[in-house]
Fold this protein.
Amino acid sequence: MRADRLVATLLLMQARGRVTAAEVAAELEVSVATARRDLEALSAAGIPVYPQAGRGGGWSLVGGARTDLSGLSAPEARALFLLVGPAAAVAPEAKTALRKLVQALPATFRADAEAAASAVVIDPVRWGGRSDERPDSVALLQEAVVGRRKVRFAYRGRGGPAERMVDPWGLVDKDGVWYLVAGTDRGRRTFRVDRMGEPVVTGEAATRPDGFVLEEVWDEVVAEIEARRSPVSAVILIEARFVPVLVRQFGRHCEPLGEEPDGRARVRLSAHMALSIAERIAGWGDVVEVVDSDPVRAELARIGAELARRYG
């Protein structure tokens, strides 16, 4: 997990003062290219990690942080936790490393560092098209989440563009598509970051519910959205060895239900309409047997008849 590597790299630099990408790669058992990308990511995030060219060069952790991580400044500590914090929700090792790192910081920095670590959640399961470009406004919104400052922006929703003023609670990276979970005068709302105009962080303090945990709230958001988007389901039988392929194909809309006496797996598939399920399993041929959805079976029969007429 990358977050665990980044923390380990930082601790290695604290111990040695200066390292090369090759030394980091050997110590952490990764490629030199991976080690170099990690070092560059730390430096780009504003953490005091700098390259030194020439003979005897490498990467150095400078300033007071060289001998003691409490030498990190408040902005540097926040930058570190914004960078490595998201993976802590899915990697126990990263969570342990971050907890140790928090204890190495001055007490006055800890609240900000912990807020930064919990400002972003990573959800690798996509809903639609993936985006490989992170919106420029993500960094600004992260600062608003950590600093608890209201954000104003124009939003392109279904009803057309509208001005919004929200309390930013957290950000979610859903397989490259970014969402802001926020409080509004109508309760909790979720906004796609790429549909926002230029957000402005105001000087007005934002509020957040007591006991707020972004991972738990995001699970609720996903459940609500997918319940609306996937009202149709079908139970199928398929050889158990193919279930991982179906999970990759359908994501959260694939629910394994157990194994049958004949060794096949029973799986529930969901989508917004029967045709969507039929189109995605038609290519499996008779490897898949639909056992309880008449609408999906009818769509498969129609697709099969069309193919037979054209190619039979």
In short: The two ends are 50 Å apart (CA to CA).
